[in-house]
Structure formats: C-alpha cells, structure tokens
Amino acid sequence: MGEWLFGALLLLLGIVATAQAQEPSSEPEVASPPAVVAAPSPAPERTETTPPVASSAPAVRSPAVPIVTPIDSRGVASRTAPAGPEAPASSTIPQMLPPPPSAPPLDLRTPEAWLSWQSINHIPALPVESRVFHRRGLDALHSGQVAEGIRLIRASAALDPGFVSPHARLARWYLYREPSQALHELGVLTHLLRHSFQLQFDVIANALFGLLHALFFGFLASGVVLVVVHERELRHMWEERLARVISPFTARVWTWVLLALPLLLGFGIATPVLLYLGMLWTQFKGRERVIPIGLALMVALAPLAGRVTGLLALPLRDDSPPFLGVMTLEHETFTPARLAGVRRLSERHPDNPFVSFGLGWVARRGGDFSSAEAAYRLTLRSNPEDDRATNNLANLLAIRGDSNGALELYRRAIAIQPENAAAYFNMGQVHTRRFDYHSANEAYSRAAALDFDLVQTYQSASRDGSLPLADQWIKPGSAWKAMLTPDAREHTSAQLPPAWRGLREARGPFTSLLGVVVFGLGITLSMLWHKRLPLRACSNCDAVICRRCAVRRRELALCPDCANAEVRAESPEFARVLLNQRRRTVQRTYRGVRTGLAGLLPGYGFFAFRRVFLGFSFATAAVMLIALSLGVREPFDAEPTFGLVGMAGGGELALGWILLYALGVMAFISRQSRLDAQSEVAPVRGRVATISRIHADAA
C-alpha cells in the first residue's frame, strides 16, 4: 500500500512539473551586447519581414530585440517619455522606443541615491544635480569639512562626466597630497578639452584675454618702475629750467607739482607715464627703450581689444551669426520652452547649419524624433560633409527601426571622417540588434582603437540589455572656422571685458591718440633739452648734473655739493678724503633707498641694473597676482569656477607673492654685492695696469 501511495505521489509531481515547463515565462530574457574582444556564440538567424500585428491585448516585449536608449556621447538624456510623433518603421526590425525612467530621488543631501538612480535608468549625466553637489562640496571645503567636500565633489564628477570644474578642483587638491591622482584628473581635463568646443573656447579666449591683460598692465607697471628708477633725471630737467626764474627750493617743490599734475587731472595712468618715458628717452640705454615703445603700442591698439574680445564673444551671444546662441545648447537641460525657441530660430534662419543642428539636438533630447530627423537632414543639405550630423541622423533611423538606412549613414560618416569612433560604435550596436555578432565585434574593435573610453562607457550601460547610441555635438573645428569667416567679423561688435571698462585708456580712439601724441611730445622735448643741457653723472658721487650746474675740475665734472666739499679742504689730500666721505654717504643712502624700493616694487631691482626682460617678467607676474587677489574673473567662463580664478586659492596666491618678492630681493642683493666687489677691485686693477704699462715702456 505504501509503495502505491509513493508511486502516485511521484506521478502527481511529474504532471505538475510538466505543466510548469510548458507555461511561457512572464519575464523574458534580454539579449546582451557582445564584448569588444571576444564575440558571443551566434544566435539562430531570425528574419522579421512583417511588422507586429496590433491587438487589444497588452504588448509583450520580444526577448530577441534589446532596448535602444537615445543618449548622446557626452551623456545628456531626456528624463521624460518621448512626446513627439513617431515615424513609421521601414525595415525588418520593429521600432523600439526607450521606456520612461523611474521617479528621481527627492533628497539632495545624499549623492549616492542620485548615482544609483542614474545607473538604474541609464542616464549618463545629470548636469543640474552635478552642479548642486559641486557647490555644496565647495561650501564644505571652505567651512573646513575636507572629507565631506571631497566626497561631494567626486559625486559631482560622477553625475556629469563632462563637468570640468570638479576635475579641476580635485587636481588642485591632490597636487600636494597625491600627485599621481592629480595627473589623472589633469588627463581627464585634457580629454574633455579635446572633444568640447565650449571648453576649447573657454581656454583659448581667456588665454588671449589674459595675454592682452598681462601685456598692457605689464608694460604699464614696467613703465612706472622705470620712471621711479630714473626719477632723478626727470626732476633735474625741470628743476634747472624753473631755477632760472625762482629759487632752487621753490623750483624743487614746483617740479613735484608739475610731475604729479597729469595724474591729478584725471588722464589715467598710461598717458602721464608715456609723457614721463618720452622725456627720459635720451637717458635710456639699450633695451630700456623697449618698455616705452611697447606701452605706446598697447595704448594705440587698446581700441582694437574690444573688437578682438567681441569676436571671441560670438559663441556666447544669441543675437549674432553664425552661432545665434546655439553653442550653449550642448550642456543645457531640455525644456519645452527651449525647444520652441530653437524651432522659431530655425524658421528665421533655415540656411544656418548650426541652428538646424541645434534644433535636431534639442528635439532629440525631448523625444521629438521626427523633428530631430528633419533638422539633421536640413543640416546635411547645407553641409553634406558633416559626419557628426550624419551619425546623429543614423541614430534616429536606428531608433525607429530602419537599420539598413542607419548602417548606410554610419558608413557615410566613416567615409567622411575615418576616425569617427562614435559611428563605428553605433554601427556595432545596430549589428548586435541584427544578431550579426561578427560585424558587431569588428565595429566595436575599431571604435575601441579610436576611443576606448567611449566604448567602455557605453558598454557599461549595456549590461541589462539596453543598447545606447552615441550622439555627437558640433565639431570644434567647424565652429572655429565659422568664427573666422567674413560674416562673423561683419557682425562683431566691440565688447570690453569688465576688467577694462573703468580704464580711460580703453575708452576709444581719442584717448589712444592722446597717449601717442603725448609720447611723441615727450621724446621731442627730451631730444631738444638733451642737446642744450645734456645730463651726466657726477664724477664723485654719481649725482645727476648738467652743463649749467656742473663744476669743472680738470677732466672731472662735480656736482655743487662735491665741489663745495673740495673747496673747504686745505690740501689736495684732505679734499680727497672729504670727497671719498661724501661719495660713501651718498652711495649708502642711495643704496638703502634702492633696496627698499626693490622690496616694495617687484622688478625694480632688475630695472635698476638695466635687466629689462627680467624686470618686465617680474612686473607682469605681479600684475597677474594682483588681478587674482582682487578677484578679476575671466570674461569668457564656460563653467563658473573653471580657469585661473577657480584654480588659485589663498595659499597659492600667498606662495606666489612670497616667491616673487624673495626672488626679486635676492637677485637685487646679489647684483648689488657684485657691483660693490667690482668697485672695490677697480682701483687696484687700475694701479696694476699703470705699473704694467710703465714696465712695458721701460722694456
């Protein structure tokens, strides 16, 4: 009896197991894309010649067709379900649209929840949330919460891989702590810079502005220091002429008044400095004349700076061709209002390839695939050799199921640009959908050889069966060429950076012409006065004297003070003692003044010894440090904290000032000590040379 019961139980279990095996699975398995190197075993060939038949029953996703997620190569994906009209399928693979993502987290305090939601929904970038966490990370660093700040900044970089500010901040943080990690962050920055026109524009435009800023203020600071170095010659010119009609003391006072008057009348700084440098023209030697010439050129060309910066501002303006504000669309989050605005802009400028490309980009982000396809076709009508628009159009065909048309466009994009890694990768994705794993593996291999990071990023998003397609933004080279066209230069208007708007020297051609005329007037006066009363140094104390005030003693020319000291002496030997004593006193005072000025004015010590290039370099470095200390920002900021201001903090600025002053003072002391040693040895060398000549004559 027990054996019969046991047999009946086994029979019942077998029937139940057979019934379960015959039931269809409610969760079909999703196909995964092949790896880059080793292709998976091929599945049985499948042909679908008819589109799926519509029925009233709920549709069940076919297990053989993976999901295609429309995202771009940088990583901005729409968070809403596709809202645009759908084009009919025209190939053997049915149209598949991405499912809407789940609801985002509501807590902005923990980035881990956002990173998890981003990974689950295959959203490569969250620009808004990334910048929120980046700002919170900076606030944490400023408040002393170092670990929390670094954690939030790292999360910001992960939420938006194209956001450069977190990488710049991390590179600065690790520079003194972990140099290898700093090099890694700098490598990421370099990679982003190579593929982003907006970042290239930010760096190049700010570098050009920084060069103009450094040259102008560097020459101006060098001119001021040069005037301070030669202030004795400048004062003596006026004192001698005023002393003809007034007393010497009054002439000395009025000399200071006349020299300060141009500065007090509101002519700025550059124009009076040009006047002083022109009056000192005959006193300059060798390379010293480079400074006044350079400053005069910078003042003369100052009105052109507005034209240059205006041309550089074209990608940021929405009212001037050829870009019309389109270049800022790459990193913007999709909004229906923005799509409507770009559509109206495209209607007004149908022949502008940048506008039509921007319309296709925004429409794709919003799920309006038919409008995006029409916009990309319009772009290719204006520029048939645009491989990136061709690649993006092929992605749209692949999304609506036209794999044959997509593959043809991918091949065309590769023919235009053989190094287009995104086209190779997208071709591999489409071949995977068609179960052509051999062709897919070959396409993946070529894409990985061209851009391994792109393949790695998108294949990591394909682990659950989704096959993302890589869109491409406008090629940086095309944008740079468009900026140099006559049409772009025609619509350029002068745009002064904020740092220059308060400068009188940059207000227009009249101010520049005034500076040049004043400089020429100063040179004319210098030549005329030097011809009548040439200046020279006292033979004893190196004081500035001229033909009228000099006292001749045989072949020597003494200043009035040295001449009075010699007259008071009762014998030639005592006169020599008094002259030596006065020389040491004057040189000691002059050396103390020069040492103090060398410690206060960067570059003064080099100009005092006529080292013009080193003096100009130190003065320019001081100007840049002052600009950073005052918070002068770059006028072309793609990101709010990217650039010199974002990279330089209080510690770096303090270190820069310390190094600048230390090197300047040490160089001045070294050259002054060398000069003193030469002056001490000079009399001995003179006596040795005289004795040598006597012996030579006797022989």
From TrEMBL:
Q: Where does this protein have coiled-coil stretches?
A: none
Which segments carry the TPR repeats? 387-420, 421-454
Q: Which InterPro entries match?
A: O-mannosyl-transferase_TMTC, TPR-like_helical_dom_sf, TPR_rpt
Q: Is Ribonucleoprotein included in the keywords of this UniProt record?
A: no
Locate the compositionally biased regions of type Low complexity. Answer: 24-40
Gene3D superfamilies on file? Tetratricopeptide repeat domain (1.25.40.10)
Quote the Pfam families the UniProt record gives: TPR_16
Does Repeat appear among the keywords? yes
Q: Which SUPFAM superfamilies match?
A: TPR-like (SSF48452)
Name of the protein in question: Tetratricopeptide repeat protein
